Amino acid sequence: MRAALLAEYRKLVSTRMWWLLLLVMVAYLGFVSAAVSATFVFVPEGSEAPLVGEDAARATYSLVNGVGYVFPLVIGSLAMTTEFRHKTITQSLLVEPDRTRFLLAKLLSVVPIGLAAGVVGVAATVAGGAPLLAIRGDGSYLGDGDVLAGLALGVVVVALWAVIGVAFGSILSNQVAAIVVILAFTQFVEPIARVVLSQVDALAGVASYLPGGAADSLIGASFLGSAGTVDLLPRWAAVLVLVGYAAVFAVIGRLTTLRRDVG
Amino acid sequence: MTAPSLTIDGLTKQFGGVRAVDDLTFTVRPGAVTGFLGPNGAGKTTTLRMLLGLTRPSAGRALVGEREYAAHQQPGRVVGAALEASSFHPGRTGLAHLEVFAPQVGVSRSRCRQVLEAVGLEHAAGQRVGRYSLGMRQRLGLATALLADPPVIVLDEPTNGLDPEGIVWIRRLLRQFADEGRTVLVSSHLLREVEASVDEVVIIAQGRLRHASSLAELRTRATPAAYVVAPRPDAVTALATDRGWAAARDGDGLVVDGATAAEVGAAAHAAGIELHELVRRDVDLEALFFELTRPTGTDPEAAR
Fold first, then answer.
1. Looking at the structure, do residues B52 and B147 belong to the same domain, yes or no?
2. Which of A22, A69, B130, B271 reaches 20 to 30 Å from A243, CA-CA?
3. Which is more confidently placed, B80 or B224?
4. What ipTM was reported for this prediction?
């Protein structure tokens, strides 16, 4: 297993894709975070700020998940789909015919990159959002324990997304299709579903079980609203839900894509 | 070196309604280069993929030594395989490609460099594979196969895309591997490509075994023949019958089967028969190969 992990890790870092994606992630999160913090800070005369105080800070910092999760998902899915796109899966399975071990190594190997992406992503989000909050708003709350815990969990969430990305890629091994589905889901389907579900009383709780909702629950904040207006799961449940998504996807991938003949 | 042999035993693969490999049985012995031959689509690659555990057989089994490929502790150390020239990540350098697969075959980074040198790619170690030529990819594939210095070497069409110099080089390499006692299996759709380097031949077509023997034995099946144009063809026919050769009209002349052009010329000279043309028309290995791999159940003319 150690050899398989080392091989998978070398596969990741020997191409340029992952750090190009990190670069884009930093730029994008920094920009969006600054823009969102601006809506909390620059409020027209006579109207009320959407969120204030600590809620504004936490919602801003939660963007690393709410907006940023597309990046670790894509990084993770690329780690798997690139094997099929460039047919390196052949050589990979020649040196590791145990396909379960191959998949496990792949899932675990993205954790370091995922954590790195998390640190960088959280830093970019804070760097984009904190200045405006501190200068014009109610403060950046970077000394607050709950806020700092949220930031640390943001790093964990990003790493989990990378693992879920690998598992998803093992189901949808066509690289282009996987990226299209991830973009569609993270940019349209899930945000809309969460907003719509939250409007229906009977279904409001369901939204927090969607992957993005569970991840917001783990961070303990959502840019869709303050803690009071958005249904969030307890943290332990949120971890289980996220790990559950990764596990279920990986099992499906193992029983479909990775059971087939290669070549 | 005591290398394991390869055993293909009743191997069958059904893809939907197509039987790509049909009850194939043969063995590959150590200390020799075995040519695995057949036209494109004969089922060679599918057979190799089943041998290497990438494709599941519909029936039968393929063994490396005593057990299946995937049942070996570190199969990459036992069998070095190069299946296709295109299975590289274009963004990775040649050296990085080897380093990726090094841990699982238990070799160090310095071994990667060493193998790259052995296949003549040291100058391109830091270059991305996307910029490699087909010939360079073949060499990199071979380097991957050789990483662990394995006792069994399996190469699928290794001469594709190689320049003549490269083809000579790989022939010599295969010869060397066999002399070292390794088991070497090389596929090709052209007998001519591997004729100079193989000891054994396994010929398949339409997924079925057509012939398995040593190359020398296959050679004995080839027969000499000559094409003759003479002003008195009946005299040539009589001469051929006299000598126990078969003569048949072919256009303006005759084809004499069972004799070399030199023998026909000498006999005609001795008998005082005038010849206007005398050409070699041997059924050579290549012709024999086409004969062996011709689709069965169809007339070759109708099959065109």
1. yes
2. A22
3. B80
4. 0.89
